[in-house]
Structures are given as C-alpha cells and as structure tokens.
Amino acid sequence: MAVCIAVIAKENYPLYIRSVPTENELKFHYTVHTSLDVVDEKISAMGKALVDQRELYLGLLYPTEDYKVYGYVTNSKVKFVMVVDSSNTALRDNEIRSMFRKLHNSYTDIMCNPFYNPGDCIHSRAFDNMVTSMMMQVC
C-alpha cells in the first residue's frame, strides 16, 4: 500500500504531495526530500552508462525500517516518488512500475489542460481521485 505519493518539479520543489492522513505528514515530506539525492545520483549514473533513455522507472531508491521508497523520472525531469509500507510483501516491482505509469498518464492529462500553468501546484480533483485509488488499491 502506498502511504505517500509526491510529484516533484525539475527544480526540486513539490508540485503535489499526498500521504495517508493518519500518519505523520512531516515525516513523509522529509522522506521524499531525502530521496531526491538518490534520484539525482541514479539519473547521473544513467547518463554516464548510456543506459536506454526510455527507461523512466528508477526502482527502489532506498529502504527504511518501516517503508520502501521508489522513484520515477519523466523525460522533462519531473520526479515521482512513492513511499510504500515495507510490511506489504505482496506488492511486486511490476505493480509499482504500473502504478508509476498510471501516475505519469494522469500527470500528462493535467499538463494537457490549457488552464494549467506548468510549474504550479497541482489542484485537480481527477488527479486526487486517482492518487487516492492508488493508495487504497493495494492493501
């Protein structure tokens, strides 16, 4: 189960952060912020190794005692970070990858909206509903 989902701009400021309401929200903001260093390291390593540039999924960024943090980066360097409860062993890498693809498709829909200014915080009911469904989908 995803306990926190964040969309981070190219300049590393949050466009959208949503976490489970019963948890400590500040802890998730800190976790997302610290994961950006790992994302930058993985992106620079991919550039040096000339890995296939179509692969946007970064995989597991780092595990903690309670959570696992996964990353995804778009071609425009917008980063998606997902924090998953580590006690959920039923969640596979393929499922995480498909959740990121679904998140990326929804983000693309927002960017195609002519009333959205790129770089602004995301305030979309459809995006909120999609994120909520992702957070409740895997229990």
Automatic annotation (TrEMBL):
InterPro entries for this protein: Longin-like_dom_sf, Sedlin, TRAPPC2L
Cellular compartment(s): Cytoplasm, Perinuclear region; Endoplasmic reticulum; Golgi apparatus
Main location: cytoplasm
GO cellular component, one term: endoplasmic reticulum
One Pfam short name: Sedlin_N
GO biological process: endoplasmic reticulum to Golgi vesicle-mediated transport
UniProt KW keywords: Cytoplasm, Endoplasmic reticulum, ER-Golgi transport, Golgi apparatus, Transport
Entry's family note: Belongs to the TRAPP small subunits family. Sedlin subfamily.
Name of this chain's protein: Trafficking protein particle complex subunit 2-like protein
Organism: Crocodylus porosus (Saltwater crocodile)
Gene for this chain: TRAPPC2L
